[in-house]
Amino acid sequence: MATSSVRLDQELVEKATIMGKALNRTMPKQIEHWAKIGEMMEDNPDLPYEFVKQAIISKAEKEAGKLEPYDFG
């Protein structure tokens, strides 16, 4: 994966550092996370944030092989 250096507002870096620490992410990974969510929200403006969040979690569970079959009854 290619990387690039960018200039960011110090306040954003500080917030990302705090949130990243709370969520066990590095500051760059926290900013990547926010960017991913922002992109998804812009691409899907009618979806609520919680739905997008659960979609990200579901994708991670799938990639980790932790899916369980759902019985529709």
Provide an overview of this structure.
By secondary structure, this protein is mainly alpha-helical. It is 62% helix and 0% strand. The protein has 3 helices and no strands. Helix 1 crosses helix 2 (27-43). The radius of gyration is 15 Å and the shape is elongated.
Chart the SSEs and their pairings.
Elements: H1 10-22, H2 27-43, H3 49-63
What is the mean predicted local confidence, pLDDT? 92
Number of strands: 0
Q: What are the segments in which pLDDT stays under 50 over at least 5 consecutive residues? A: none
Distinct helical segment count: 3
**What can be said about the biggest beta sheet?**
none
User: In terms of structural class, how would the helical and strand content be classed?
Assistant: mainly alpha
Tell me the Rg in angstroms: 15 Å
